[in-house]
Design brief:
Order of helices and strands: EEEEEEEEEEEEEEEE
Number of helices: 0
Mean pLDDT: 89
Strand content: over 45%
Shape: globular
Low-confidence stretches: none
């Protein structure tokens, strides 16, 4: 599992304009509240606590997928540009399992801009084979000693706002203020509603802002092989994953459609 257990709540309101069936854009206001607690304590440096902050954002959404589950063609785009206002962190630090002096870590609360981009495209290759190409990016600009608004790396299914999916790692395995990931996948329909999917991805890290609290590699690569069956309540999927940097094989289970 990941290094931290994360809770995320938000209050969100927005004004939206649609130019057609497939394109929406608008402006919104979001108040975010996050709480982190360590999932394991056998590391040299950990923190526990919460943070909250208001955000104003612009967004654009496009969806031309032919179906919600296991699409065969089309493109889905979610793009967002944020201004994160002054934060209110309440954090306790630990070194070698013991409480540390929080004044020595100088947590910043300054406002900063943030961008999020998710692009997911599908191309049918044969009657039973589909190519998926996905790109995700999350960037906190001017972000160094801020805390608890890094992007959470890991997982094969999009579950929460600041998640960056990565084949090879569980949700919350790594946290970073700036990264971009590129994924390619081939899906083959073995039988009616029964699929096997192979994924490979690469992630580039720390190229705009670098966290003072997380030390992560600049490049990650990983893979996943997924067996899926689409039934009435959505897909039932079981995956095996591997990450070149962690050298570990992991499993991942997804049941139903995430909301």
């Amino acid at each position: 599992d990941g290094l931290y257990k994360q809770q995320y709540l938000d209050f969100d309101s927005h004004l939206q304009y649609s130019t057609g069936r497939n394109l929406d854009y608008g402006v919104g206001y979001r108040f975010e509240w996050l709480h982190y607690r360590p999932a394991i304590f056998n590391t040299n440096f950990l923190f526990s606590g919460s943070n909250n902050f208001p955000t104003i954002y612009l967004y654009l959404r496009h969806n031309s997928l032919d179906r919600t589950v296991y699409p065969r063609r089309g493109v889905k785009i979610d793009a967002e540009g944020d201004w994160v206002f002054t934060q209110g962190p309440d954090v306790e630090f630990f070194q070698n399992g013991q409480p540390a002096n929080p004044d020595s870590f100088r947590v910043a609360t300054n406002p900063y801009p943030r961008t999020i981009l998710n692009v997911d495209g599908y191309i049918p290759l044969t009657a039973k084979t589909t190519l998926e190409l996905m790109m995700q990016s999350g960037i906190n600009f001017n972000y160094h000693r801020n805390i608890m608004n890094e992007f959470s790396i890991g997982g094969l299914t999009h579950l929460f706002h600041n998640q960056i999916q990565f084949a090879g790692l569980q949700e919350g395995s790594l946290y970073s203020p700036s990264m971009a990931t590129f994924q390619g996948a081939f899906r083959y329909e073995l039988f009616l509603n029964t699929y096997i999917t192979g994924r490979a991805n690469i992630l580039f890290n720390n190229f705009v802002s670098k966290s003072a609290f997380f030390q992560n590699p600049d490049i990650l690569s990983g893979y996943a092989l997924t067996f899926g069956y689409n039934f009435a309540l959505g897909p039932l999927e079981f995956s095996l994953m591997y990450c070149d940097q962690s050298k570990k094989i992991g499993s991942y289970v997804n049941i139903g459609i995430p909301f």
